[in-house]
């Protein structure tokens, strides 16, 4: 009778309410990042691809550099700063709160993006180094904040890894300031393209890929069931992005053949590390018929898997191009396809998968349109396939030019799907913020190499 009474009381008890969401510190950064990507970076990419593959003259270098800076610093870099305000408290078991530095980071990143965009106006080239300086200051302050936030002794390896990654973003901006000021002093409003490739490589390989690898070492269990990185590999992972930075920096200073080898070895060091990390940890391992992704749907699992496969393909492609240095290969065009395999195939796929995964967690609300995850996967897959086909277009398949241009449209659709979901969730009335209680990843047994 007592058991039956307990069951009856349980039936009559009010339902347990879900915990209120934490403070949405990431919101201004996410809005800035996805706004920059969807409204500026991706449309510019579509236009540049159409310009290149539909019979137009040489690409306008200043617009090409704006596209790259918006994608690298305005999208990936800014999103890293915002999401870090939620991930680092989980690593340390502390509250998710905005620090006194947080609004200044948002202001500096927004100002840098605006100055870069304004610099494209004829006669306003001096605004570009000012924009790079503002973003560089933001990333330098962010690296200092990361160092102070990850102070528990067990997190020492992760602390060094993520601080270095943030610092590489700041260093890339500082190098860009110098390059642009030297060009302006010489009377050139547009800086040397090879030198700027080194800037973007430092930011992407050392900063963005370095940050993603560091986060996955610790937070992989948030996305993949049974995530386990072999201890020896966890120790080696930070060295991949760190090795890529000097290789990318030395490339513009070397001879033509050596520059190709160094640049592709830099890509191989960073992408090879990411591929080894994800595959060894179990991102592609199947459990029965399903991938072991702890996501809201199989669509997120497919997006993440596409990113891992793209990293593998990128590492193989970088090795092949390094071995082919000195031949008649059209290295610049193939390297461009390889770079977009990294940025669209790997980084954008990981960002899209993780953002879809984190929206319900950070906002305390379901996705408004769950089918957009399938749309995003199909768009990313199509973009990666068509963008990679650029190699065939170079080798006597000119009819593929319009298809390669279409890849830019598809690459725009995926982040646009995420941006639409974010905007829809943000305009809804928000439940009360969670009371003061520390966040933690305890219970997941994450492995950070310590």
Distance between the termini: 53 Å
**What is the level 1 CATH name?**
Mainly Alpha
Helix content: over 70%
* Overall geometry: globular
Q: What's the CATH architecture name?
A: Up-down Bundle
State the CATH topology: Cytochrome C Oxidase, Chain A
> Strand content of the residues, in percent?
under 5%
Based on secondary structure, the structural category is mainly alpha
Give me the Rg, rounded.
22 Å
Characterise this structure:
- The protein is mostly helical and 450 residues long.
- The protein is built from 15 helices and no strands.
- Helix 7 packs antiparallel against helix 9 and helix 12 packs parallel to helix 15.
- It has a single domain, classed as Cytochrome C Oxidase, Chain A.
- The N terminus and C terminus are likely disordered.
- The longest helix has 33 residues.
Q: How would you describe this structure in keywords?
A:
450 residues, 71% helix, single chain, mainly alpha, disordered C terminus, 0% strand, Cytochrome C Oxidase, Chain A, disordered N terminus
Could you give the topology of this structure?
Elements: H1 2-12, H2 27-53, H3 61-92, H4 102-118, H5 127-149, H6 156-185, H7 193-219, H8 231-236, H9 239-250, H10 256-281, H11 298-323, H12 331-363, H13 372-388, H14 390-394, H15 401-426
Helix pairs in contact: 2-3, 2-15, 3-4, 3-5, 3-7, 4-5, 5-6, 6-7, 7-9, 7-10, 9-10, 10-11, 10-12, 11-12, 11-13, 12-13, 12-15, 13-15
